[in-house]
User: What shape does this take?
Amino acid sequence: MRAHPANYELVAPGGLSAVLSLLAKERGVWLPIAGGTDVMVEYAAGKLPARKLVSIWNLPELRRIEVFPGEIRIGAGCTYTDLRVHDMVGREFPLLANAASWTGGIANQNRGTIGGNIVNASPAADSLPALLVYEAELILVSANGERRVPYSNFHVAYRKTRLAPDELIRAVCLPRCFSRYYAHARKVGPRKAQAIAKVCLAAQARLENGVVEDIRVAMGSVAPVPLRLVRTEDSIKRKPIDAALLRLARQTTAAEIQPIDDIRSTASYRAAVAGNLVAEFLQALSTRGMQG
Amino acid sequence: MSESPDESSKWEITLTVNGKRVTVQAYAMERLLDVVRNDLGLKGTKEGCGEGECGSCSVLMDGVLVNSCLIPVLQAKDSTIITIEGVQADGRAPVVQQAFLEYGGAQCGICTPGMILAACHLLQKKPQPTIEEIREGLSGNLCRCTGYLQIIEAVKEAARRGAAT
Assistant: This one.
C-alpha cells in the first residue's frame, strides 16, 4: 500500500555537522536521503522501514570534487551529472564517467548521487565496478571524526556495508595512477539507459612487451556484492593474449562469480555473458591497448 | 486512507512555480508531484510509474530536469519549478511543441509534457544535438505509442528551426 506522508518525518538541517549530530543522537533512527532516486521508490511503495529521514541533498560539504596531485576526491553528494561534466573525471577515470552516463536517464542522473549508489549497495549498480577497478578509498564521517577505508571490502554481504549507523560517506577518493591503462566498460541489459544491468563490466589493463603486465576486472550483477575478480586477474597476469588465455579467462571467470536467477536474467546466461565480456575485453586490449 | 493524519505536522513551504511565488501547507515527505498537481492544480504534470522510470512527471527544478515523483517537497523549498504549463514562457517550448504536433510526436499525450520538458532541457545544453544526443536526452522518458521515431524527428526539427535561440 502507498505510504502516507503524514506518517513520515523529514528534516533538512542544511549543514553536515547538524546532520551528523542528529545521526549520533539517535543512532540508526534517521535515514539520510540525498537525491531520493532509491529512497523515494521504496517510500512510494510503502516499503521504507525508516519513519524519520534527514535530507543530505545538496549539502555543500558533500557536493564538490577536489583534485590533488595524487588523487581526486569526489564528494559523496555529487550527482552522476556532476561526474559526467567534470573534465578530469572523464579524462582520467573514463570507466566512472561511462558508468555515470549509463545510470538511469537524465532526470535521475541529475539527482542520483555516487554516495547514494554506494550505500544503496545494489550488486547491479553501474558505477560500483568502476570504483573497484580504480581501487577507491572512502572517507567516512561521523560526529566523532573521519576514517578512511578501502572500498574493496566495504560491501560485506547482499546490500550490507561497513557504514556505521551514525556515519555518512563524505567522499570517494580515486588514485591518479591509471593514465597508462587501457580501460573498457560494458553493460549488458535490455536497454542502454534507464534499465538495470543483467551483467556489467569495468576493466582496465596494461600491456607490456606483448604480455598483460597488470589487470583489474570488476563486475556487477554476478554476485551478492559488486565483485572484483581477483582470481581471474591473477590467471591472466604476465601472459600473452592468445586463444589459450581467452579459454582460461572464461573458465576462471565462471568459477569466480556467483550469479543467480532473478527477474532480469538467469544464472547460466549471466555466466556465459560474464565469460564473453572478459574475453572481449582481452581481445580489445590486444588490438587497441598497445599504445601508452 | 483510514488513518487520520496529523495536520499540525505540515510545513509551510514556499517555492516559485512558473514565475509565481506560492506557499503551500504540506507534509515534508509529500511528493513534489502531488503538490504540483493537487495543491497547485497544475495537472499537466502526469504520474506514470511513480518510481522514476518513465519521466511523465518531469519538471525543471532550478533549471534542471527532475522526476517530481522522487522529490520530497521539503527538498524543493525555495526552489524554482517550471512545469509544462510554465514552459511556454521559455522561448524554446512553442517551437518544440509545434514540431511535436507536425511530426506526430504526441499521441495519447501522457508522456508528452515530460518529453517537451526533457527536449527543452536538452536544447538548452545542446542547441544542435545529434540523433544520439537526442536519444540520450530523452532516454528517461518512456513513450508507449510513437515508437520514439516521430519524437526524435520532432526534436531534430525543433533544433533546426532554432528552438534554442
In short: Chain A has three domains: 5-55, 60-175, 182-288. The first helix of chain A runs from residue 16 to 25. Chain A touches chain B through 34 residues (CB under 8 Å). Residues 182-288 of chain A form a domain with the Enolase-like; domain 1 fold (CATH 3.30.390.50).
